[in-house]
Amino acid sequence: MSAQPHTYAADDPEKALKYAIQHIEGDRVQIVEGVIESMSPTWDHENAADEIREQLGPVLRKLKCRAGSGDIDLPGSSNWYVPDLAVVPRELAKGGTSLLPDQTLLIVEVTSESNGDTDRIVKRRRYAEYGAPLYLLVDRQERACTLFSAPGQLGYTKTDGPHPFGTPVHLPAPFDLDLDTSEF
User: Fold this and answer.
1) Which of 17, 22, 37, 120 is the most exposed place for a label (fewest CB within 10 A)?
2) Which residues contact 101 (CB under 8 A, 6 or more apart)?
3) Position 4 pLDDT exceeds 50
4) In this prediction, what percent of the chain has a pLDDT beyond 90?
5) Phi and psi (nearest 5°) for 126?
């Protein structure tokens, strides 16, 4: 008896594409404007995300939130993101499914040389369009951090930065925290 491959039939190409990338073994994969990207961050890239996670730790406990790099779905588009860090309410982190940008409190993307413009332009626009309240861009090529807030259909309407690495970046409520960027 031969094993039958698992198939997924869908009349909706968006659902089929998103289903397919969720079942790629062993890789972190995202879809950006219909293009499938395999992700393999470098150690210095991961260091920046970890520095932020560590600084957020005490505030996350008070807010009953979790920080991680789980899947973010953008329904109605050919986008499925895996942010470097997203802060979400603890109860949503237990669902085992993807979340929507407007279910986050903060999304952090750390740029890489190979796809920095994706984080600077495409993801910033899409996160705003889908209601992510705060988007922190850690731009390793420009050596600066920028916090975007007040999302809308045309993008974020408030920008704080760019702040050169080493300059504190204030995360507003509910965090009310000055983020030390000197180790990025």
Assistant:
1) 22
2) 72, 74, 107, 126, 127, 130, 131, 132
3) no
4) 65
5) -70, -40
Per-residue pLDDT, 27: 67
* Rounded Cα gap, residues 27 and 19, in angstroms: 14
Beta strands 134-139 and 106-110 are parallel
**pLDDT per residue as tens digits for the range 102-138:** 999 999 999 998 889 999 999 999 999 999 999 999 9
**Using omega within 30 degrees of 0 as the cis cutoff, is the peptide bond preceding 151 cis?**
no
Residue 30 has which token pair? 């995202």
Q: 176: buried, middle or exposed (CB in 10 Å: 19+, 13-18, 0-12)?
A: exposed
Query: Between residues 54 and 30, which one has the greater pLDDT?
Result: 54
CATH topology for 41-179?
tt1808, chain A (3.90.1570)
Instruction: Give phi and psi for 12, each to the nearest 5.
Output: -105, 110
CB under 8 Å to 75, separation ≥6 — which residues?
Answer: 14, 100
Q: Are 82 and 141 in contact (CB under 8 A)?
A: no
Amino acid sitting at position 40: S
Q: What is the domain partition of the chain in residue ranges?
A: 41-179
Query: What length is written for the chain?
Result: 184
